[in-house]
Amino acid sequence: MSIIFVLLVVLLCLMAMIGENRGVKSFFILLMNFCSFFIMLKAVAFGIDPIKATILECIIISSITLFFINGFNRKSAAAFISVLIVVIICILFAYKTGTGAKLQGFSNENPGSAAYLSYYVHVNFSKLVTCEILIGLLGGIIDVAISISSAMNEVFVNTFTISKRDLFRSGLNIGRDILGAMTNTLLFAYLSGFMPLLIWLNMAEYSFADLINSKLFCPEVFQIICSGIGIVLIIPVTAAITTSILLFNIHTINKA
After folding, report:
1. Where in the sequence is the domain holding 27, given as residue range(s)?
2. How many CB atoms lie within 10 A of CB 61?
3. Same domain flag for 36 and 53
4. Mind telling me which InterPro entries this protein's record contains (predicted)?
5. DSSP 110
6. Is the pLDDT of residue 172 over 50?
7. What is each CA distance from 185 to 68, 132, 161, 190, 201, in whole angstroms?
8. Does residue 112 register a pLDDT over 70?
């Protein structure tokens, strides 16, 4: 615990030195997001539907991250709406495909862990897989959404007469530059999380067919693919929403 506290202090000092006031604000927002996540876990434990709790958690985290750091403005609003749209799409897609793939329960490789747990938890594990995907994806799509909307806002401010089509294309081009880096970030974040599992399966001399059909391995690959889909979807959605919001103000002014 003392080591964790020291690391938190180091993180706070670095964020304060490099990010100044915004860095300090980001640190405390990070703590707020962690607390809200812990409250969501407690809510699920008390019987609230996991998907409903996760949607509410996504709204809270997105609101805190976007509006508290970047302020209440057009680019934050565009990013927030875009994140919510992609979250809903990913929930529907991940739950339907995850249920069809039967990604739930414990596998034959972890009977030791399951032996000490109660099976009467009354929680839908298919929904938990969906929630895990959304929480893992949320930070990435928030980052991409605010990056695209901020850049598009700068393009719009400096090129006030830009057409709707050109502004939308600018958003797509910005998103394409981010796409490769962000998908790799998510890929290696997930890979590092189950790297010990991959080593253990190889040492146990699992064949490739056994590996890709393992109940331990499939959910991880499923999460990577769904996260990649979410990152891809957030680009055109953010470009479209930001274009509409920015040009809506112009049309309103012209009508007035």
Report:
1. 1-46
2. 22
3. no
4. UCP031503_TM, YibE_F
5. -
6. yes
7. 25, 17, 36, 9, 24
8. no
Q: Other C-beta atoms within 10 Å of 57: how many?
A: 22
Same domain, 31 and 88: no
Q: Can you give the pLDDT at residue 114?
A: 45
Task: Convert the pLDDT of each residue in 54-68 to its tens digit.
Answer: 888 888 988 888 888
The answer to whether 34 touches 49, Cβ cutoff 8 Å, is: no
CB atoms within 10 A of CB 48: 14
Residue 253 has pLDDT above 60, yes or no: no
Residue count of the chain, please give it.
256
For residue 204, count other CB atoms closer than 10 A to its CB.
10
Q: Which residue has the tokens 């958003």?
A: 171
* Low-confidence winner among 33-47, 117-131, 152-166 (lowest mean pLDDT): 117-131
**DSSP alpha helix (H) spans, the chain:** 2-45, 50-63, 69-70, 74-101, 111-115, 125-158, 164-193, 195-203, 208-212, 218-255
Do 4 and 91 fall into the same domain?
no
